[in-house]
Amino acid sequence: MAKHIEDLSQFLQSFGVAALALLFLPVLIAVLARKVALALTASLLSFTSLMLFIAPASATSGLAIVSALGSFLVALESVFARRRMMAFDKQLADLTSRVNQLENAEQRRLALEVKRRSQTDRARRQGNQSHQRDGLGIVTKVLYVEHNDDNIYMLKTRLELSGAFEVLAAEDSEKGCRLAATEHPDVILMDLEMPDDDRWEAVRRLKNDPQTRDIPIIGMSAHAVESEREKAIAAGCNEFDAKPIEFESLVATIRRVIAGPKSMS
Fold first, then answer.
1. Alpha carbon distance 70, 148 (integer Å)
2. Which site among 105, 123, 154, 184 is 20 to 30 Å from 112 CA-CA?
């Protein structure tokens, strides 16, 4: 090996500085590109080719050195590759651990949210059950007979959020009469614009049934004229409220009809 290096040294001295600069130019370019192993390999190959063309007698020494350095580069690249793989495995393990932590944190948050909502709902139900309203008793049970789903949702939500009402909903007159007989609500909110052949029939039916005749009925209609109110009272309604509904006014009407006489007869 020492003889090979001596031969190579003599060759480089005879070849000059310009050749050395040309030889190491690929190394500089590859280093700037952050490809050190590739630069060294390219330089060694260039060097060997140069020797074969210019000084064939020194080619054997050059090839021996190139072979030795090539083996070293392969081993060095293997070490670097192993370290990169170990670093990647560590980053992947850290990322997996972080994802698991986030998933566990999200699961705990969801569990706490469910528990909080459950406690809130339980407290609301308990509050509703114990709620007293001017000495009139427990939460008012309201039956809302209305064919418009949006109207049902809006009024039911507002009444129940107030904490003083429990709202049953019926989308047609038949279901409304059935719920009135089975659930015995404290008051009935009756839409007087139901798509029935006779829009007053449901009111008359409730007032003629011994099971429901004493339940006060508040008729509601968008026809806010005196004649509509008179027809509603004549059909059996205890009160009349015009649409669109004014919430506070409706609540006051509900409390008034419950506090007053429940029978029109």
1. 85
2. 154
CATH number for the domain formed by residue range(s) 134-259: 3.40.50.2300
- What is the per-residue pLDDT across 160-204, written as a single tens digit (0 to 9) for each? 988 889 999 999 999 999 999 999 999 999 998 888 767 788 999
Pinpoint the residues of the chain covered by CATH 3.40.50.2300.
134-259
DSSP conformation letters of 145-198:
E-S-HHHHHHHHHHHHHTTSEEEEEESSHHHHHHHHHHH--SEEEEETT-SSSS
Check if the beta carbon of residue 30 is closer than 8 Å to that of residue 97.
Answer: no
Q: What is the spatial distance between Cα 37 and Cα 30, in angstroms, rounded to a whole number?
A: 9
* Cα first-last separation, the chain: 126
Contact indicator for 207, 236 with CB cutoff of 8 Å: yes
The strand pairing partners of 143, in sequence order, are: 168, 188
Q: Which helix (H) or strand (E) holds 241?
A: strand 239-242
**Does the reported pTM lie above 0.70?**
no
pLDDT digit string, tens, across residues 203-226: 999 999 999 999 999 999 888 788
